[in-house]
Amino acid sequence: MSPVGAPHPVAASEYASEVGSLPLVREQLDALLDGTPVEREKRWDIRLAVTEACSNVVRHAYPETPGEFQVAAELTPATLEVTVRDAGGGSTARIAPRVGMLLVHEASDAVSIEDGHPGLIVRMSFNLR
Questions:
Q1: The domain spanning residue 80 has which CATH number?
Q2: Does the chain have fewer CB atoms within 10 Å around its N or its C terminus?
């Protein structure tokens, strides 16, 4: 995720839909949060939720062909908003409550999942205060 000049720190990057991308996403989240007063436990929740959302893309979005996904994050003094978007074959009608998405919901303060036509958009919000 590279900064894209805005009033609040914003980061956005595109990743290959492969397991090797997951540590890159976590590293970029850590870089965005460095220098902030976000507590260690909250950082773990953020990393867990975002990693699980990205892992779902890697496992389910592109079953037959390679694909990509985007991660965008906006940091304000009170919140972190993270969006994971893919253009794969998923739809909200086919989402089953499996462990990964349950972890996303548990570790986030708010979650929404939308059809991206194609793919899915997962939006996660984290209260930082």
A1: 3.30.565.10
A2: C
